[in-house]
Amino acid sequence: MDRKNFEYKVKEYSMSNFPDRKIFVYDDVLPYSVRTGIYEMCSKSLYKLNGTDNGVLENSQHISVVSTWQVDDFKATQLLENLPQEVIERHNMYYKFHHNTMINLCTPHDRFHTHIDNDSNGWTMVYYANLQWNIEWGGDTCFLNEEGTEFEHVCSYRPGRLVLFHPQIPHMIRPPTQLASEHGQFFRFSLATKFVPALGEARVLADGMKDASLGGG
User: Fold this and answer.
1) If one looks up domain 11-53+66-216 in CATH, what number appears?
2) Phi, psi torsion values for 139, nearest 5 degrees
């Protein structure tokens, strides 16, 4: 994509106890045509009931609704192909490092809990897929301290926003409010992808060759 005169905004945050664990928030980083395509893919995807978002026994009955994508599904979004190269390089966002992709479908009736994504030093990418959303409708992503007792950063749900963060940062989704449903927004979609460089290197060794996908690593 020709990104001439295509400016984006970025904010960077660090966690108080672990300053090297960072959160990056990007706005205006994807063209509307790409955003529309991703939203259509999310809205037409096949969803299933999933278990709780952490391993606490008392939360085991709090199920969520998700769609699990393979790497080819993620490639079909063309999301990486439309990002600035410096963003891809900063976060090691290459297909060979792709671990998994999941679409979260959230409603005001859902319950979510504090969790971490994995114990790697990779990146979690969350893309807010809805095309319309008001700040009063909730759906934020909350990042907590190491004890999971206090919010350190709250990232509001803004259409087209891209959030990248260290996967060991405790975080949780806040469900959308009933007000969203009253305005015709019945579902909050977010696309969550994990990039794990160590996994990618293992794939290179197993395949005997590098993945020639976007950026070439």
Assistant:
1) 2.60.120.620
2) 80, 20
Q: 0.70 exceeded by the pTM? A: yes
Q: What confidence tens digit (pLDDT) does each residue in 92-130 have?
A: 999 999 999 999 999 988 878 899 999 999 999 999 999
Q: Is the pLDDT assigned to residue 144 strictly greater than 90?
A: yes
Dig out the tokens for 48 from the structure: 């299933």
What's at 156, amino acid-wise? S
What are the phi and psi torsion angles at 201 (to 5°)?
-65, -35
What tokens does 215 get?
Answer: 């950026």
Structural tokens at position 137? 């409708």
Q: Please state the φ and ψ torsions of residue 106, each to the nearest 5 degrees.
A: -120, 145
Domain limits, the chain: 11-53+66-216
- Cα distance between residue 63 and residue 167, in whole Å: 21
